[in-house]
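Incident log, support desk, overnight shift.

02:14 A customer reports that sequence design results differ from what the structure should imply. Their input is reproduced verbatim below. On-call engineer (initials T.W.) acknowledged and began investigating.
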């Protein structure tokens, strides 16, 4: 009787060990290594279904049992994690429960406005649009960084940033500001000072130049035209600025008309002198450097060439500029591009 009981206990113990091995130590992930995003408020069952349905793990039941044994609650540790091939449930849950996240690579190169930038940011992280939008329009919080809701876009230097999926809107802005400070090192700041602009003003001007051309050699030349006009206290008379103002009013246009130059807007550079209160897009690093390394000359005007090559005529006199502008307007009329 005693021998039978002992054998029974050994058998039960053996089955328990086999069960625990199957639940905890048996390799349960498929190759290759993959990134997994655990969203906010994800439950154990939802995570198990996600892992099984998307081919991360072989056995969903053992994984779910392991979450109970280790008291793991995925809603407490959302984020992006790297699931290595041939991991067992114990290795996986130890990593997930410990919040050992794999960094997210957040990349952006350009944006038409704040809404466009926010759309790019939320694709890679767990932040929703609402807190980002509120933060980028909060004058008091932005003032601590030296920015306003109108010019905050200039803080975002296009690059690839390594962050965690669980980063908050405030933490992201702080990280972006640190990168901004590294970008605007002494050499760039000295160049900005020599042309009489602040770092923010350089980025605003770069956004206007970027809207005029994607040719880097011409960009430095166009920057020189705008700087010449600023020095002479002349209005910039930038069509892309008017286009930006009209688009902000939900107007879709392909051509600026004379009537548009009378609109009331701080971005109407036909009526307002100086730079606008903010950028008309997110300028690239190359465009910022094109302004800082502008080509000195005595041109005061430029006009797009009629062949639509994206290149421009440059002029010193208004009379010469009118002749160049007529060629482009005639080409637009020929194509019947009126608005």
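02:41 Re-run completed on a clean worker. Output:
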């Amino acid at each position: 009787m005693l021998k039978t009981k002992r054998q029974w206990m050994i058998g039960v113990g053996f089955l328990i060990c086999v069960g625990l091995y199957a639940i905890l130590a048996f390799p349960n992930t498929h190759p290759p290594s993959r990134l997994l995003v655990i969203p906010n408020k994800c439950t154990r069952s939802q995570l198990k279904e996600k892992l099984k349905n998307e081919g991360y793990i072989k056995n969903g039941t053992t994984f779910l049992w392991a979450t109970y044994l280790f008291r793991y609650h995925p809603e407490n540790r959302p984020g992006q994690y790297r699931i290595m091939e041939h991991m067992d449930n114990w290795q996986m849950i130890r990593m997930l429960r410990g919040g050992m996240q794999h960094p997210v690579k957040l990349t952006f190169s350009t944006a038409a406005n704040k809404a466009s930038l926010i759309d790019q940011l939320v694709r890679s992280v767990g932040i929703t649009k609402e807190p980002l939008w509120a933060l980028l329009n909060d004058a008091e919080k932005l003032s601590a960084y030296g920015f306003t809701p109108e010019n905050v876009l200039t803080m975002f230097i296009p690059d690839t940033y390594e962050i965690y999926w669980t980063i908050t809107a405030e933490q992201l802005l702080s990280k972006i500001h640190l990168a901004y400070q590294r970008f605007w090192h002494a050499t760039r700041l000295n160049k900005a000072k020599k042309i009489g602009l602040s770092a923010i003003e350089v980025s605003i001007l770069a956004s206007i130049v970027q809207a005029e051309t994607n040719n880097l050699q011409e960009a430095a030349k166009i920057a020189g035209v705008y700087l010449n006009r600023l020095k002479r206290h002349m209005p910039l008379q930038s069509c892309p600025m008017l286009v930006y103002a009209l688009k902000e009013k939900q107007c879709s246009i392909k051509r600026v008309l004379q009537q548009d130059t009378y609109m009331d807007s701080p971005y109407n550079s036909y009526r307002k002198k100086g730079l606008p209160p903010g950028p008309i897009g997110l300028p690239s690093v190359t465009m910022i450097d094109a302004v800082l390394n502008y080509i000195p000359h005595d041109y005061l005007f430029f006009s797009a060439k009629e062949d639509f090559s994206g290149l421009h005529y440059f002029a010193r006199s208004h009379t010469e500029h009118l002749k160049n502008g007529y060629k482009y307007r005639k080409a637009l009329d020929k194509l019947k591009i009126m608005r």
